């Protein structure tokens, strides 16, 4: 459940990002990850620390921060080199990849219900992104598609490695966000022109992004991946684009359609099917 709160926060990503105006992507990443770093610092100061907890090594910080930055850089680049619908769909293969690739982790077992649940969620996401109207593959956008695939695999790798190194405390995400902030700043200075928020709404959107989707979400995701059911969290992640669309509709930034209702049913069914073992746990008949 803690891991799923990250999915709930990511549902606000589109709304908040749209409200930030014309701020360039890397600049926005730098600003929001800086706030996300502060979120972690405040949380870490207030928590009870185990006596044997070790500091985060530079190698771990650079690896985690590099992965976070690489995912966002690849995703931004994919959107610039391929149609947004197709690039977004390919990049959002990561929940399915997490479910399937989790079988490679020690102690994890992949069941048929995990795979079907994840596929149902991905089908629902297709309906949301395309509006039920289908999509076409543009041969000239091959580079963009490849970048989107790379983004999906990067986030999958980051998430599953977090599970494998469960002994690394979640406070390491503070260092990841700090490294990402620096790398985003460098990329911004090289590739972009600085555009500061010019209204209170844009500043509030930037702060909201840094506090939740690009802040607290990474900490709860890390905690969930290390301590929760990987397959269930992966399959339930397809709720993010659905919830994001519902929020956009509520704020008048998107239109209602019956394809969204069908997507809702598919994603809900997929998440419940993936969580079958958890739902049925404790409901077996007792032996007399």
TrEMBL record:
Any one GO cellular component localisation term in the record: membrane
Name of one Pfam family that matches: EamA
InterPro entries found in the cross-reference section: EamA_dom (IPR000620), EmrE-like (IPR037185)
Regions that span the bilayer: 26-46, 58-78, 84-105, 112-131, 143-161, 173-191, 203-221, 233-252, 258-279
Domain (EamA): residue spans on this chain: 3-130, 143-274
Alphabetical keyword list: Membrane, Transmembrane, Transmembrane helix
Top-rank taxon, per record: Bacteria
Protein name: Membrane protein
Protein's organism: Ahrensia marina
Record lineage: Bacteria, Pseudomonadati, Pseudomonadota, Alphaproteobacteria, Hyphomicrobiales
């Amino acid at each position: 459940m803690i891991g799923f709160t990250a999915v709930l926060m990511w549902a606000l990503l589109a709304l908040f990002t749209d409200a930030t105006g014309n701020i360039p992507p890397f600049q926005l990443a730098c600003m929001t990850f800086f706030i996300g770093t502060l979120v972690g610092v405040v949380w870490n100061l207030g928590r009870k620390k185990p006596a044997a907890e070790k500091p985060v090594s530079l190698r771990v910080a650079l690896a985690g921060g590099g992965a976070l930055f690489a995912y966002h850089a690849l995703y931004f680049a994919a959107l610039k080199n391929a149609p947004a619908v197709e690039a977004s769909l390919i990049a959002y293969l990561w929940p399915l990849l997490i479910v399937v690739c989790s079988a490679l982790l020690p102690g994890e077992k992949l069941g048929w219900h995990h795979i079907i649940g994840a596929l149902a969620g991905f089908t629902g996401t297709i309906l949301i992104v395309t509006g039920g109207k289908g999509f076409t593959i543009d041969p000239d956008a091959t580079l963009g598609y490849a970048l989107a695939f790379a983004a999906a695999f990067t986030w999958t790798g980051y998430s599953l490695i977090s599970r494998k190194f469960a002994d690394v405390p979640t406070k390491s995400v503070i260092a990841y966000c700090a490294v990402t902030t620096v790398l985003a700043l460098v990329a911004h200075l090289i590739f972009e022109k600085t555009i500061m928020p010019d209204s209170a709404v844009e500043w509030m959107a930037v702060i909201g992004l840094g506090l939740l989707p690009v802040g607290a979400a990474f900490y709860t995701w890390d905690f969930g991946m290390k301590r929760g059911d990987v397959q269930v969290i992966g399959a339930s992640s397809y709720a993010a684009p659905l919830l994001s669309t519902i929020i956009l509709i509520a704020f008048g930034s998107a239109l209602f359609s019956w394809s969204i209702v069908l997507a809702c049913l598919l994603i809900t069914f997929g998440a419940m099917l993936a969580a079958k073992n958890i739902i049925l746990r404790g409901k077996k008949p007792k032996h007399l």
